[in-house]
Amino acid sequence: MAGQVDVIIGAQWGDEGKGRVVDALAGRMDVIVRYQGGANAGHTVIVGDEKHVFHLLPSGMLYSGKLCVIGNGVVVDPDQLLKELKELQEQGKDRACLVVSGAAHVVMPYHKVLDGLDEKFRGKDRQIGTTKRGIGPCYVDKYNRVGIRIEDLLDADVLREKLSFNLEIKNLVLSRVYDESPLAFDEIYEKALAWGRALAPYVDDASLVVDQALQEGKSILLEGAQGTLLDADHGTYPFVTSSHPTASGGCLGAGIGPTRIDRVIGIVKAYCTRVGDGPFPTEDHGEKGAYLRDKGGEFGATTGRPRRCGWLDMVALRYAVRVNGITAIALTKLDVLDGLDEIKICTAYEIDGKKQENFTGNSTVLSRVRPLYESLPGWSQRIDGCRSFEALPEAARNYVTYIEKATGVPVALIGVGPKREQTILRGL
Ligand code: IMP
After folding, report:
1. What is the pTM of this model?
2. 65 CA to middle of ligand 1, Å?
3. Which of 4, 2, 59 is nearest to 256 (CA)?
């Protein structure tokens, strides 16, 4: 593993089980870096009987001796970050070392307020179904070049100047566009200074820290959040998040060059889910969708919203392989399919009477496609106790092999339950 750099990405609409795969690999890696998104993510790691949900902290935080990094591409809600750190400290589990990039942007209180108001303004037909964590408005400020970065929290004068400028505009929008009360400067300023004091010990040049680790031959895991189909460029626009969950986002958001990446590991759930609005060709509105939701516990780790559920979509998965350059698949939640007599797989779409084998991020078109399915036999036995590929029932092995053939990518990890040990490793 010396000097190895892996990127972990979600190959669907997020919630593929990235946390548990990162956790499974983190033991062998030295540095774990979150590179985009923010507290809209919810990465669940289960150790023994304990469940940890990380929204901002890298999922490697439970391992002692690891270096965990929040990269420049992440938008940081300091209240959430400090809460997660405090929880770990109180439980005596703050075993890893944390570095937060000074260049990461700060989710300010007005970003969260605006996230909710913007959604309301878009109305039922246009709403995105955001997590209301202020993610979109924070990235808007970043790209509008008015954002406040973590490093700004450490300089009272810079912070005062940037915050007063931002608040002037935000308060105009709040009062004149949304007819809401303006926000008070002093309260936010004091809060932001306190964030700066609390975060100061962790702030550093994250890109440099990662590079130094690489120079020392250490291995790096770039932990993506959300999923390919939520990418602002490659996802089902406009029903996307505001950052880049794809593998190239890993380079950008961690400050690491593309030539350094060795492997791109695509996390694929054995079926599909989506939370929030937007097209989902293989969604099952019937009893099979409800079965997957109940059995898979498909309720948002961040918002608690029920997730929409459906069948594996090979058109979308081949696309994810292409835009990310996936070199290995980690297939999660295979056990959720136990007990189904048949398992459907979407192999192509039909649009206006024509067969379509390539995915499109055009939401208007995608919402009109009809999925074409193939059916594979299911299996009746429970697989949560299987610890090798050979121990799986033949039908489950066939499902895995089908995915490998259809994508041309090996399935190198199979999750058969939520616990750390319920993992079949096949060369990862
Ligand atoms: P935002 O990222 O909160 O702006 O939400 C934009 C879209 O991305 C919405 O459809 C959310 O439901 C979805 N989304 C954001 N984060 C996650 C995630 O971690 N898992 C799944 N969906 C997410």
Report:
1. 0.96
2. 31
3. 4
